[in-house]
Amino acid sequence: MASTALVTLVNPGLTLLDQAINAAKSTMKTATAMKNLFESILEDLDNEVFEDIVSSESVKVERIVSKGHRSPASGWYDQERHEWVVVLKGKAVLAFEYEEDLVLRPGDHVDIPAHKKHRVKWTDPNQETIWLAVHYR
């Protein structure tokens, strides 16, 4: 009975259950402000832009913005994690060691296994190419 009286004194308009729910909500991680993948793009893209959307030990999601960028011709990406990529806007060409090039347009996606040697051979120099990349184990 004493605990009920204490709860009533804290907020007499809410039941014990409602107060417990509110307390739990106040300790939960809150969502950050909504963002749009097609906004906040720099006018001058001298360098390719990599922006983490979400990241944990097992997965990382990033937005990549390219405009005429490509990987150095002298090397290949050889990543520890698998990578799924989708082109949301623009065009790109991915090159794979010992395989044919892939031309990617909006909506095209590919899953690249870990240690599959690849590189970006070309991105459209006349418009932004916006990628969404998911790196996972």
UniProtKB/TrEMBL annotation:
It comes from the Bacteria. SUPFAM superfamilies: RmlC-like cupins. Coiled coil: none annotated. Residues 76-134 form the Cupin type-2 domain. Transmembrane segments: none annotated. This is Cupin type-2 domain-containing protein.
